[in-house]
Write a structure and sequence with these properties.
Elements (H helix, E strand, L loop, with lengths): L21 H11 L7 H16 L3 H15 L10 H11 L1 H8 L1
Helix pairs in contact: 1-2, 1-3, 3-4, 3-5
């Protein structure tokens, strides 16, 4: 909130996102949306490419934001990481494209 009590950002604890760089929301959405689907990794890759193409985002930026979200929230829902979100975070960080982006 600013000094006049106007909201400056909206926190969505479902995605733990805030008002800011829309690339962050695109990066997380591309991976969260298909989570649990049979071909989740392929769907995530397709959505990432589509978001990059449609909005002019660099794929590396999306992958880095996704990695940052996974690291920051890995135990946000269950301390110690004993939940499905933790497993999703591990999957994100094991994605070869994310790992390659982190190494650059």
């Amino acid at each position: 909130m600013d000094d006049d009590l106007r909201p400056l950002a909206l926190v969505d604890y479902g995605f733990l996102s805030t008002g800011g760089d829309p690339r962050f929301d695109a990066a997380v959405t591309a991976a969260i949306f298909p989570a649990g689907a049979e071909h989740a990794l392929e769907i995530t890759r397709q959505l990432t490419t589509r978001f990059a193409d449609e909005f002019g985002y660099a794929v590396d930026d999306l992958l880095l934001y996704r990695a940052a979200y996974a690291m920051a929230t890995s135990d946000a829902f269950a301390p110690g990481g004993g939940d499905e979100h933790f497993a999703w975070c591990v999957t994100v960080l094991e994605d070869p494209a994310v790992a390659e982006s982190l190494h650059r």
